[in-house]
Amino acid sequence: MITAKQIRELLQARPFRPFRICMSDDTHYDITNHDMAFVGKNTVEIGLNLDPDGFAEYFARCSILHITKLEDLQETVSH
Q: What is the pTM of this model?
């Protein structure tokens, strides 16, 4: 079972390592920087469709009970 504390630890890790949140309905969310998600006791708010300045167009609210796994993502270098 995934916990809020586990997700928060991934977001606060230094250096930050991108990761994927996999949901029970087979959707997933790629967390590419530590500012993309906010962890609550029972939910994670994930910013989506980020603009070049990192501002989210909208948010997905994910129940932590429905998170099935957390996966590391390969880091990409953008130029």
A: 0.88
CA distances from 15 to 8, 12, 33, 49 (A): 14, 8, 10, 23
Among 54, 69, 60, 78, smallest CA distance to 1 is for: 69
The Cα-based distances of 34 to 10, 14, 17, 24, 25 in angstroms read: 8, 10, 9, 23, 24
Asked if 69 and 2 count as a contact pair (C-beta separation under 8 A), the reply is: yes
Domains in the chain with CATH codes? 4-72 (2.30.30)
Structure tokens at 5: 């504390």
**Segment 5-28, tens digit of pLDDT:** 999 999 999 999 999 999 999 999
Distance CA 79, CA 76 (A): 10
